[in-house]
TrEMBL record:
Cell wall formation. Adds enolpyruvyl to UDP-N-acetylglucosamine. It comes from Methyloglobulus morosus KoM1. This is UDP-N-acetylglucosamine 1-carboxyvinyltransferase. Belongs to the EPSP synthase family. MurA subfamily. CDD domains: UdpNAET.
Amino acid sequence: MDKLIITGGNQLNGELRISGAKNAALPILAATLLSHAPVSVGNIPHLHDITTTMELLGRMGVQLLVDEKMNIEVDSSTITSYEAPYELVRTMRASILVLGPLLARFGEAHVSLPGGCAIGTRPVDIHINGLIKMGADITVEGGYIHAKAKKLKGCRLVLEQVTVTGTENLMMAASLAEGITTMENAAREPEVTDLAHFLNKMGAKISGIGTDVLVIEGVEKLGLESIHYDILPDRIETGTYLVAAAITGGKVKLKNTRPDILDAVLDKLTEAGADITTGDDWISLDMHGNKTKAVSVRTAPYPAFPTDMQAQFIAMNTISDGVGIITETIFENRFMHVQELQRMGADIKLESNTAICKGVKYLTAAPVMATDLRASASLVIAALAAEGSTKVDRIYHIDRGYDHIEEKLSQLGAVIRRVPN
Ligand SMILES: CC(=O)N[C@H]1[C@@H](OP(=O)(O)OP(=O)(O)OC[C@H]2O[C@@H](n3ccc(=O)[nH]c3=O)[C@H](O)[C@@H]2O)O[C@H](CO)[C@@H](O)[C@@H]1O
Ligand SMILES: C=C(OP(=O)(O)O)C(=O)O
């Protein structure tokens, strides 16, 4: 298992290009299953989750062609299997995203239940109940969801809870259903919006995009002509590098990103003392060498503060001036980074879904263990500001969601290297 060794103390300065969004690329690659003609997808990030998705589609018999710029051409006309096996689903929950497209286009899907994982139980009942309401016949047996439907039927869906992949699965299924589906309490995350634009480009009829009421008029077929679609930039990768620069008192310019989908994060960084300027596709942050001020945040569905940035802000608060209170409202077990940060000298008290972080003067290096994707990012951020060399173990989590992290951080002046085993 690879490890990262990070020697803290260097200010991060310079420019960086942000990659395509993992959480948009995964549903869009799943949605290519709906297309009759081959589809080309660009701005795909180099991530382990992308490799897993390609393996998943490949095992179904789908043909994939990747060029040197990471454009992926997907041809689903050669499909031979409608199964997402356990050994792939267990490494990437987003595999559940093939359920809606397989069922809607081929009338059949066998998808392993993702099961509980590090950050919470993460059930998929809303996905299943929505498909049942659209007429699917679903049984859960032997750890698999077995779904069948001759033709899904449009209906009114009121989602019990805001769910990102749930909205995406049901939106993909409804695109090929007979009649109109109205989805209320839908997720409004920019990645959901990106998927909706992609589906419409393939011929779907989705309106209400970007709101919490989606109206989807089912069509007979999707993707009768080949299209190309570029994935939107990764707002969480963007936010992570901004926090990394802020904790070191540095100055960075992030290019190929989207400030308009990062309002909640940019507001909190400004409150922390960062000088933020933006253009259409860039964001710059300048701390003028100053220490950050602790900030309080409460995670909630978009457009509020994202749960996927919670761990990074806790890391920043550990050596900020003052006390920051972080409340996690989406996942019940997303504070596992706290214990590791405490090993580096952080003063954090956990009270149910709240972390009270009191800034300390300095953090000290320690061997730490990554427990999930964003927890890993928070340990890297803390290590950049800590005294000494921190060893971050189990970084396969980070490789799921951060494109060339050590190269990108090195480019900004960080002292970081990957060591095998
Ligand atoms: C691949 C992807 O896009 N992952 C993102 C997606 O995950 P994901 O789509 O899995 O997260 P959800 O939005 O579904 O989860 C939100 C909440 O709803 C609950 N829930 C969800 C579905 C369901 O059927 N029943 C149920 O109870 C979950 O347990 C959780 O408490 O959104 C999360 C919340 O923004 C992000 O942290 C993840 O990075
Ligand atoms: C939790 C995340 O991803 P996933 O839903 O793929 O586990 C994340 O991106 O922070």
